[in-house]
Amino acid sequence: MLADKLVQAVFAELDARGVEREARVFELRDVAHDITNNLLTGFAPKALAEMNDYVAGADALIAVTPIFSTSYSGLFKSWLDALDREALDGTPVLLGATAGTARHSLAIDYAMRPLFTYLHAEPVSTGVFAASSDWGAEADSVAPLQKRIDRAARELADRLAGSAGAAKADPFAPESYLAGGSSFEDLLTNLPTRG
Description:
By secondary structure, this protein is of the alpha/beta class. It has helices at residues 2-17, 32-41, 46-57, 74-82, 107-118, 145-162, 174-177, 184-189; strands spanning 61-68, 71-72, 92-99, 122-123, 128-131. It contains eight helices and five strands, in the order αααββαβαββααα.
């Protein structure tokens, strides 16, 4: 439910800005056996490979996991282990998590955010945590779930609107490390000088 609400909120933000959007929702339980087989053999079965290719080509990612033992689920981490190491380079990510109690609300910042940062993704500032109580009558009235969802959606939409359709830079292309030149000499000639 949290992932669906996040997608809807991001869509609303993008629609208001006139930015085209499309999303696919993947349930890891549908490819759980494929993830295990990939970890055992090093080869992704077709369904997992297609999912991973879609994620690698996406302009952004909304990643939501239940919290188990104060961190993301093992299946979630296993999927990230099965994903190409460079698949998320520079990709904006909206992080979300659910758990039975608000005591786990910091798991986004101490577990998920470092993981995605390690993968060179770019998590937006606001992560959305939803405890069981956020869905009922006893929901937080100071920072209601929908308010947190809307804030995170705005942040991701800001990133997408600013870079809609932008291609990921190839870190191995000479333009990215030779300052637009074609040789090491060009790089040295184009170095900024301190004055």
